[in-house]
Design goal:
Length: about 550
């Protein structure tokens, strides 16, 4: 165990050398980080951490927004670093704690599965499968786009340990603890879909053992965890019902960014090569319409699946169960139109969107399958296959850039260098303490300059909370409509209005101060107040 933890820390340290503040990108930077900073400030000021003073007009109840259900100690404790020199390490510390918890959980699970099914499996292969699970999901977890996926990843091995535990009370206790952990530290949609898969797993183990204990531990643990979480969950669910997300997505949205069946095996076995091959040949450009899409399934132990499938040894029920769940998840990742249509018309599933979460679960059950089904007739080839599989996963990494769905490179530079803070300190001199801002961007120039626009300097997303400026908008897909200060919905998903909406928002709130992006190249930002325009460009630090 100690060796695994040391190795995990070493790998994470290498990632930090590759890109300092590795986890501060995409939604982690624009949505989660500003809110955690504000939570930390409130805690140190002995104020309620559940209220945001600066997004969505201020006095915004975070407890009613299921997108901000981040009350896990691994999230809250690092938030106390707000306004210190270590402030930018908050997301990395949170991520490291979740990954270390996943390391311990999967190591214990692997040891338990080895004891029950493959007592001859060497420690070296146990280590290989453990770190293949932890880092194969790097595009979603280590990647990172959504840090809260780490909460779900770290919960999966512990939940399975609870289901497999021969002592029902201890197993139920593990399920209770890590269901709560997943609710408050994870991504709620992923918790939902994980619950469906693990219910099938618990049912299968009960059938295999001819005992209701595994299914009882799983069901009872979930019910008790939900009851204990009710004080936090009830306002979040009630707020979700009043959000636009409650209506679900279109059928097209439900199949967006799914991996085509023709790309699936390439993604699994050569995932980290796909971005490089696409750049070299141009043949995979369409499949790479969303950055690094095929690498979603890059698996360090993928090639080890082949001998496990073709061996002649008789199949045991747990092996077939793990493979069957993985195949079900494969269908959901490919997500043909019929599946998307069924999800679109199912109230329980209609709010689920892109199939990224199923990728994490697929990799988890593939690794369970590998731990349980070891083909003795291929034991001589096992080392060669493992080395080739590991090489296919690792060798492309130095040749590619640090993975992110949206690195927000300009904003990382502005925020980490302190230039954004200097800019807003100057802008706030032109604002009264109770002023509220709204950001306006012309849609056509935005489409042409998406990567050249520093959103942190425009006060969009949740950056106003970071710089203590009050905005009438914010960034949350689950914001309750009855908490919105104005009825005009921003044209842009990240909380900016289009030029055509200016009259409408000023009619609702005439006292609003408008931050307008006039030009992206060269960057020019204007402040509009009472019909008077002020050029903010001189405040930009060169």
């Amino acid at each position: 165990m100690k060796r695994h933890l040391i190795l995990c820390l070493a790998i994470l340290s290498l990632l930090e050398i590759w890109r300092p503040h590795y986890f501060l990108t995409d939604d982690n930077l624009s949505a989660g980080f500003p809110i955690l900073v504000e939570i930390g400030r409130h805690l140190k000021e002995a104020k309620s951490p559940f209220i945001s003073d600066h997004i969505f007009g201020g006095h915004y109840d975070l407890l009613r927004d299921i997108g901000f259900l981040c009350w896990h100690p691994f999230c809250i404790l690092p938030s106390l670093l707000a306004d210190t020199r270590a402030e930018f390490w908050m997301m990395d510390i949170t991520a490291f704690l979740f990954i270390l918890l996943a390391t311990v959980g999967f190591t214990l699970l692997a040891c338990e599965l080895r004891r029950e099914f493959n007592p001859t499996l060497p420690d070296l292969y146990l280590t290989f499968y453990t770190f293949s699970f932890l880092f194969s999901t790097y595009i979603l977890t280590v990647g990172p786009s959504w840090g809260n996926f780490l909460g779900n990843q770290s919960a999966l091995p512990w939940l399975v340990l609870g289901i497999l535990d021969r002592k029902m009370m201890r197993g139920t206790g593990l399920v209770i603890l890590f269901t709560i952990h997943s609710i408050f530290g994870g991504y709620q949609a992923l918790s939902l879909s994980s619950g469906i898969c693990l219910t099938l797993f618990a049912l299968g183990i009960s059938i295999y053992r001819l005992s209701p204990a595994p299914l009882f531990a799983w069901c009872a643990g979930n019910i008790l965890a939900l009851l204990l979480s009710t004080p936090f969950l009830f306002p979040a669910i009630w707020g979700f019902i009043h959000s636009s997300r409650a209506g679900g997505f279109s059928q097209d949205d439900c199949s967006l960014f799914s991996i085509p069946i023709s790309i699936f095996p390439l993604s699994l076995f050569l995932g980290n090569w796909t971005a490089i091959l696409a750049n070299l040949t141009g043949s995979l450009k369409e499949a790479l319409s969303f950055p690094y899409l095929p690498t979603l399934l890059a698996c360090g132990a993928a090639w080890c699946v082949l001998p496990a499938l073709v061996g002649s040894r008789r199949w045991r029920f747990p092996e077939a169960l793990c493979l069957a769940i993985a195949l079900l998840l494969m269908v959901l990742i490919i997500r043909p139109n019929a599946i998307a249509l069924a999800m679109h018309h199912t109230p329980f599933l209609r709010s689920l969107r892109w199939p990224f979460r199923e990728s994490l679960q697929f990799l988890f059950f593939i690794h369970l399958f590998l731990l349980i089904r070891v083909q003795e007739q291929f034991i001589r080839l096992r080392s060669v296959i493992s080395l080739l599989s590991l090489a296919a996963f690792i060798l492309p990494l130095p040749l590619g850039r640090a993975p992110s769905f949206n690195a927000l490179s300009m904003d990382r530079q502005e925020v980490l260098s302190g230039k954004a803070e200097i800019f807003w300190n100057q802008v706030k001199l032109r604002l009264n303490p109770h002023d509220q801002i709204a950001t306006v961007i012309d849609s056509d120039p935005w489409a042409k300059n998406i990567e050249k626009i520093p959103y942190s300097l425009l006060g969009t997303a949740n950056f106003p909370a970071l710089y203590q400026v009050t905005s009438v908008s914010g960034y949350s897909m689950t914001s309750p409509a009855d908490q919105m200060p104005i009825k005009t919905i921003p044209f842009f998903w990240f909380g900016a209005y289009s030029e055509k909406q200016v009259a409408a928002i000023l009619q609702e709130k005439p006292e609003l101060k408008i931050i307008e992006l006039v030009s992206a190249t060269p960057l020019k930002i204007m402040l509009i107040a009472g019909g008077k325009k002020t050029d903010l460009t001189p405040y930009l630090t060169p």
